[in-house]
Amino acid sequence: MPLRTGAEYLASLNDGRQVFLDGERVADVSKHKAFREAARSVARLYDIAAAPDNRELMTFTSPKTGQPVLRAFQIPKTHADLRQRRLFSEKWAEATFGLMGRTPDHVAGFFCGYAGVPEVFAKGGQRFADNVVAFYEKMRDEHLYVSYAIVPPQIDRSKPAHKQSDPALYAGVVEERGDGIVISGAQQLATGGVLSDWLHLSCIHPLQPGDENYANCLAVPINAPGLKLYPRRPFALRADNAFDYPLSSRFDESDSYVVFDKVFVPWEHVFIYRNVEVSRDQWWKTTAHTLGNHQAQVRYVVKLRFLAGLAQRMNEMTGNVAAPPVQVMMGELAALASIYEGMLLAHETVSQIKDGVLWPSALTLYSAMAMQSELNGRMLEIVRELAGGAFITLPSSLADLESPQTVADVERYMRSASTDARSKVALMRLLWDFLGSEFGARHQQYEKFYGGASFLVKQNVYRNFDWKRAGALVDAALALPPLGAAD
Ligand SMILES: Cc1cc2nc3c(=O)[nH]c(=O)nc-3n(C[C@H](O)[C@H](O)[C@H](O)COP(=O)(O)OP(=O)(O)OC[C@H]3O[C@@H](n4cnc5c(N)ncnc54)[C@H](O)[C@@H]3O)c2cc1C
Q: Is residue 396 in contact with ligand 1, taking CB distance under 6 Å?
């Protein structure tokens, strides 16, 4: 199958998927104001990957079809392969300024991780390992965009899945048939779900004996009968013009609560079935979680670079750029952004080759993610501190720059020393949409929780840190010879 173009992607979205907004079913997400521009942003990614000039950077040859396919589906076997994945994702992330988190390369990483270590799935039966490899190949060779929902709904976290007030609240198996299984219940939180082709359902929360019905891993087409998506409030609906909402209007990838209403899944798309142990191992005994989140960090580093650029441009406009205290604060912002870039590179270089695939460094990844919850807030705080009233002392909308009644005052009093009023307002709108608008606020929540709550990520760090080596130093210090003893 030739590389997918943006136009083909957009045309494929009108497929009968059930998306509900404001009490009504959305007829075609590619045309609805809430999703249209975000869909176009994804379409542009497919066009970037399909451009002949980008062939080497963005594609590799499918070992099955001999056709070029997206590098996001290349299972890294060497450090150089992982670097190539980074360059692929960086190119895509730059096209969205790091503001779309779950572009098709995110879940692609998870399936590369599954297919690289299929033995984990074979513990539940060889057919499941075969299924996951075949689905990975299908995603790769058909250039599919898969979103995922792998967290149970926040209904009652004090009880395990099987002890909820209704056994079909959490998405789980309600019927086993000769040709497949039937799933009912809800799962959160499919970012990009309304824009994707397929949905991956599994559970990353720890499950316990008794929770077997919820211990699955499978994929369903997004238009599968019974699959319903409930996106949160879309910000693009409020973004009445792209000048005042330059980011909300283009990059709101949406986050959907997913409801399975007796969704049939044929066996070939089931990769784990009622198996608590394999359900746990899929995340920690394959490279799925580290590869998927490698993309997340590549995207985040691009986003931080964008933030640093915006802040620096703001300082130039306010005339504060040369003030030493401002440079100190900008130095802190740049240091934090550089730490994230350094951790990303370490994630690659410290990785190890084992059983024929590359295992990206879990410790560096989880350390970066664990602190992202706090450090992201610190970086935004620096920019707010430097802004003063810059986001607020602006005209109410683009109309004030165009109306004969207001334009003269706006142009005279709202300009900066280095730019005219229109350029200054355009820049400040970018910054406000980045950190102050509803879109910006959702982004802060995203950076805190996209990879799970930080108390869980810190536990991952705890499990991966080399306590033995740290303890050996303590033993060596305790065993120091008495002062004055002969060496
Ligand atoms: C914008 C956004 C997009 C997302 N996109 C996706 C996606 O595409 N796919 C997907 O599957 N998931 C996605 N997620 C992540 C996911 O759905 C959850 O939000 C995330 O894993 C956190 O789980 P939770 O919301 O259930 O919070 P909880 O687990 O309920 O935690 C909330 C808070 O409660 C406290 N807490 C709870 N339990 C404990 C405990 N035992 N010890 C200490 N403190 C505790 C902590 O303060 C914690 O931060 C996304 C999240 C956000 C915010």
A: no
**How far, in Å, is the centroid of ligand 1 from the Cα of 452?**
5
Q: Which amino acid is at 480?
A: L
Mean pLDDT on 438-442: 98
453 close to ligand 1 (CB < 6 Angstrom)? yes
Calculate the CA dihedral of residues 275, 280, 281, 282 and round it to 10 degrees.
Answer: 90
The alpha carbon of residue 42 and the mean position of all alpha carbons in its chain are separated, in whole angstroms, by 14
Helix, strand or coil for residue 132?
Answer: helix
Give the integer Cα–Cα distance in Å for 392 and 413. Answer: 14
Question: Smallest Cα–Cα separation from 397: which of 244, 236, 235, 239?
Answer: 244
Residue tagged 């929540």 (tokens): 445
Q: What confidence tens digit (pLDDT) does each residue in 10-26 have?
A: 999 999 999 999 999 99
Residue with CA closest to ligand 1 atom 42: 455
The answer to whether the Cα torsion of 140, 218, 358, 108 is positive or negative is: positive
CATH number for 288-468 (one of 1.10.10.60, 1.20.140.10, 3.30.70.2860, 1.10.101.10): it is 1.20.140.10
- CATH for 6-284 (2.40.110.10, 3.30.1330.30, 1.10.10.10, 3.10.180.10): 2.40.110.10
H/E stretch holding 261: strand 255-266
The atom number, within ligand 1, closest to the CA of 446 reads: 1
CB distance 199 to 219 below 8 Å? yes
> Cβ(391) to ligand 1 under 6 A?
no
Is any atom of ligand 1 closer than 6 Å to the C-beta of 154? yes
CA pair distance 192, 231, nearest whole angstrom? 9
CA proximity to 443, closest of 366, 362, 383? 383
Return the DSSP state at 451: T
Rounded CA separation 196/13 (Å): 8
Q: Whole-angstrom Cα distance, residue 335 to residue 79? A: 26
Q: Where are the domains of the chain?
A: 6-284, 288-468
Gap between the Cα atoms of 412 and 414, Å rounded: 6
Instruction: Report the share of the chain in percent with pLDDT over 70.
Output: 100
Terminal Cα-to-Cα distance of the chain (whole angstroms)? 71
Smallest Cα–Cα separation from 426: which of 445, 452, 398, 453?
Answer: 398
Atom 15 (ligand 1): residue with closest C-alpha? Answer: 450
Single out the residue of 237, 212, 315, 200 nearest to residue 38, CA to CA: 237
**Its pTM surpasses 0.85:** yes
